[in-house]
Amino acid sequence: MTYFPEEVVEHIFDFLGSHRDRNTVSTVCKAWYQVERLSRQNVFVGNCYAIRPERVMARFPRMKSLSVKGKPHFADFNLVPYDWGGYALPWIEAAARSCAGLEELRLKRMVVTDDGLELLARSFPNFKSLVLVSCDGFSTDGLAAIATYCRGLRELDLQENEVDDHGRQWLNCFPDSCTSLISLNFACLKGEVNTGSLERLVARSPNLRSLKLNRAISVESLNKILARAPHLVDLGTGSFTVDHRAEAYHRLMNSFPKCKSLRSLSGFWDASPRCLKALYPVCINLTVLNLSYAPAIPGDDLIKLICHCFKLQKLWVLDCIGDKGLAVVASTCKELQELRVFPSDIYGAGNTSVTEEGLVAVSSGCPKLNSVLYFCYQMTNSALIAVAKNCPHFIRFRLCILDPGKPDPLTNLPLDEGFGAIVRSCKNLRRLSLSGLLTDQVFLYIGMHAKCLEMLSIAFAGNSDKGMIYVLDGCKNLRKLEIRDCPFGDGALLKDVAKYETMRSLWMSSCEVTLGGCKALAAKMPRLNVEIINESDDFEESKENLVDVHKVEKIYVYRSVAGPRNDAPEFVWTL
Amino acid sequence: MEDLTSREDACPQLLDLIPNERYWLMVQDAGGGRGSRGIGRLDASEEKKLELRLGLPGEVEEERKPSVLSLGFFSKTPKTTSINPCHGAKRGVFEEVESNSEGSQQQQEEGGFFQLQSRAVSEKKWSLKTYQQQSLEREEAHVAPGNPTGPSTNSQTRTTSLPVVGWPPIRSFRKNLASSSVKQSVEHENGNIEAKAKAENNNKGWLVKINMDGIPIGRKVDLKACDSYEKLSLAVQDLFLGLLEAQKDTCASAPRKDEEAKQAFTGLLDGSGEYTLVYEDNEGDRMLVGDVPWEMFLSTVKRLRVLKSSDLSALRLGAVCRKRAATDC
User: Out of the domains of life, which is the source (chain A) (predicted)?
Assistant: First the structure.
């Protein structure tokens, strides 16, 4: 029962930013549900198979922005077979039928096709923004369609997609009348583009603030582009290497000082230390710096750059930076919130890598640090305890020790205590990835303390079902749990089956779960899709021969109101 | 059940981490911890083997398959691994482990090396365990007490890369980053792997040693300054012209000397001249300069040499030609 007229309720709902809050108010009563659904403009679907597209469109007819996610996270690491699913077309088709006012589409880990892109381009006259993250299945032809038909396009942001290269003409397809671009990111494209077209496009886009070029763009082109777009705030360079005696080099040195608005830099493929000098004039204003594609920059040159970046908030680097470089980060970047250190040479001897010292230094020097992704070859409990003490505000803590199951080298003990300290100290921790030698004890700690935890990634850890049970039991806000190569079996899987309906998804691969366990789960919980992914060639025959005690290689369990999906490939068996 | 066949042993410091001198082929503990590990039974040569290998002490060489480190563990005492009959479990390195271990429980009890899991999961042999054990063993063997840091200790142990599917958890395009831009060749020389890689990638200039027959002093040529074989040939001439002149007959007049000397450097690349330019590649082989595309040459050349064409013996040439043929296909 509402005491206010609907318009007022709607107005109040406008202040609710997050979709979670809106989801909550819509469950209060029927009236509020109606008001909310008719006024919701931004719709987020965390799992494309949790609900049918048509239902979403029907519920939110005034939808302007749609975000959909497809494949499970471990698809990023090739653990999910190529054609597992996550197709965007049904969503585009449903939207085309029912929500012609769509302005923005954001897809992550989905299979998008050229047909889908063309349908998208033709169906929504007000379409403004397309963001594709970690998607695949399309080519530059699809991009050509977007460029051609989306009048008034403001944003085309392609992040880390696998795009087939069918030529460079797609960029030419932006009509001369297209002057509305604010953001263009084609960094992930492998092929060349027509640089003349690009320069002209940039020249006629006065609102362009974010431009991320791909590796095929040379420094010569970059110079010309920067000359046309001095108001850029966010730049992704192309190939950042040129002979220091060439004229292009000198132009490069002079290009950046003019870009007074530049706050964010990325790209730097093939970057050479000499070329990096071009950035010195803009360092002091940078808030975001991504050097993680530049393996040829040694630590000392990185240091020369970073020691000027006082305002840096987000830094992505390779481990060539070394502990020494991280110490410089710690003493310079007092505003740092997010740090990612990627491995530069995963097959190597770790000579160029960072150790626990670097992480401790940054945790000590950067009081605002709240998000870390750190690849290293070793970690100690004492370091983790120190980090936990220094940074109680972590929201995301992802540590990857490159040797699976590696203990603390000082003590030879598992890293249970170290991670335990992290979860105890960081009360707002939402995302955690574990690595190193870990027993059930660490999961006890996680279950006890990580009350805000939403996403947990586990690999090569634990001793028994107890580990997983601690987590499922204790982490009340858990939404995504992904596990690989751990000794968790049916006992853990079936301990609390209702829990999975409170979560988005569960992934388990190379664990001890059996077919019988999966069947039991599916039988008890009809509103869960229990998918078994089996990639062996003789799956079909072996299906008959499968006995319940057989272990399943990969399972993906997710709540859904859509029932079993109808686009599952042969190797996916929904129980 | 413990193996009580340990004997007193004067263990070298490395292994004194563990006070109980028990045979380290030990067995599980009930608790979640690792249980105690034994060391014992290692004389100097066996210990040496342990240092360098990742298998059990006293393990036979042949049984170790470099690509599957964990296999080394199983050569003596095949473990039971839960075999997944329903599919050829694609676990990368673990696949071989499973296929090899028809193992019986008894053998495991007999001499399985230390287990890390509790009895609750006693029957399963986890590929995970092999990693944990492996890394623990490595740590024991290689970490001297009181040596806290140093990825270098670990680097010694990482003799081969572990091709676990989906590990480390980074996107594929990041995995190829180093190799695609740095063109790393296998480095035999230690130290300065970084420097070499840098040098190969930089536009700063790349100096490669070059020697010439008959001239005791070697030079260095900047390969990046030459963008083609022709330029390289000219650069070689520049470097050695003066030195060659100095060696020749001093009676001749200056201009004539010049001419003659220059003459020496024609036909460096095609075998027609007095001298021929060859190089040593990253595999240590001697190659004729000019066969492969310039970029490819840059990525494999390690040093250069100017040989007297007459010295290119049939044998050497044969070897060069064979290698050429090999690289052609």
Answer: Eukaryota
